[in-house]
Amino acid sequence: MTEQNGERVRVVLQWLQILDNLEPAFKEKGEFRFRSKVWGDRKNGTKVIQQTQFPEKGYWSISDHPAWNKKDNLDRVVFEGEIDDHLVVEFFGEELDTFSANDELDHYLREFRGSVEAMIGRYAPGEDVPEDTPEDDPESMSNWRICYYIERA
Ligand SMILES: [Ca+2]
Ligand SMILES: [Ca+2]
Ligand SMILES: [Ca+2]
After folding, report:
1. How far is the CA of 147 from the centre of ligand 1 (A)?
2. Ligand nearest to the CA of 23
3. Looking at the CA of 110, which ligand is closest?
4. What are residue 33's DSSP bridge partners?
5. Residues 83-102: what's their mean pLDDT?
6. Most buried residue among 25, 78, 126, 138 by CB atoms closer than 10 A?
7. Does residue 48 form part of some domain?
8. Residue 148 backbone dihedrals phi, psi, to 5 degrees
9. Number of domains, the chain
10. Mean of the pLDDT values across residues 41-48?
């Protein structure tokens, strides 16, 4: 294949952390499901979109206790493909409830424009914003936090 639709990258979710389990105070763990939507523009003008859901079956029970509220070492590939100069990374999370509508975690969306070279990196709470403006850090949301990286594939 000599056809070039851009540069090949991979987006990998490394960990996530729950700050609020979206459950009544007496309940230590919530039942969580997540999905990702990563999309970009290719050189030929078309879009590439990849969506994943995790876990594949059922849910993860996750506490919001600071000592064990992190799902670590996920190393989950949420995108692999060729992109040109535009990439959007989205994550969604919901907490399942039986007798009422499920609760939604904050919607994560980050848009990258420009060279692929500039997109390559690790995106985590507090790593790529000035320390005095933590509220501007997209990976640190009100009820959960995430860490992922964009690498060449
Ligand atoms: Ca709930
Ligand atoms: Ca629940
Ligand atoms: Ca960050």
Report:
1. 24
2. 1
3. 3
4. 94
5. 97
6. 78
7. yes
8. -145, 170
9. 1
10. 92
Cα separation, 122 vs 89, whole angstroms:
13
Two tokens at 117? 């070279």
Residue 2 within a domain: no
- CATH classification of the domain holding 147: 2.60.40
Question: What is the CA(31)–ligand 3 centre distance, in A?
Answer: 26
Residue 68: pLDDT band (50, 70, 90) is very high
Task: For tokens 């919901």, name the residue.
Answer: 94
Q: Are 153 and 8 in contact (CB under 8 A)?
A: yes
Domain limits at 33? 7-152
At residue 65, does pLDDT exceed 70? Answer: yes
Return the closest-CA partner of residue 119 out of 76, 99, 145, 148.
148
Res 81: pLDDT: 96
CA–centroid distance, residue 94 to ligand 3 (Å): 22
> Is residue 1, in this structure, part of any structural domain at all?
no
pLDDT at position 1, please? 46
- Whether the pLDDT of residue 134 is over 60: the answer is no
Cα distance between residue 149 and residue 75, in whole Å:
10
- Taking residues 138-147, report their average pLDDT: 96
